[in-house]
Amino acid sequence: MTREQFLAGLKRSLGGMSEAEQKEILYDYAEHFRMGAADGKSEEQIAQALGNPRLLGRSYRIDSLLEEPAEGGGVKAGSVVRAVFASVSLGFFNLIFVLGPFLGLVGIMIGLWACAVALPLCGLAVVLASILSAAAPFLQGYIDLGGIHPAVTFFAGIGVSGLGVLAALGMWELSKLFIKMIAAYVRFNARVVTRRR
Fold first, then answer.
1. What is the pLDDT of residues 135-177, one digit of tens each?
2. Which of 30, 49, 67, 147 would suit a FRET pair with 164, their CA atoms being 20 to 30 Å apart?
3. Residue 156 belongs to what domain range?
């Protein structure tokens, strides 16, 4: 592959990135060719050492997605999801090593969020049942507190609601950490696949 073929293939695969980013990347690779030629290497040898321009371009696009800033710093969750699916295009094994673990971990996060949301709702239901049991004696046939005094269930419900709020706050922080870790893993995987430094 000649210098022109390599750079043209790289430019095609950088589509979707800003013009400034494309120019900078193309300049860097043109410099690789210039320095390799100064060392007496042929264009084919330099192109072979640099790797597949299509995969390199996709790797840079993944990096570009993962550098989109979110409010308050960090990475946008939508950008991470797009980067995960873009990384699948780097090779068949990324279906196994990127997409598979990502979908499994997303399932775990959804389950944890469901628990974090259910806890305060259950606590509020217990508080409401305690209030109705004590305030409306005609509902006692419909509300069974299991022989526990309504005051005990009232405060237990408040405790469960508080625990649920803490769980939701913890899940918020865990979700931010999850997004950062997935972004770092996708970036690492893209560089390993394309042998970029």
1. 777 776 677 777 888 889 999 999 999 999 999 999 999 999 9
2. 147
3. 92-194
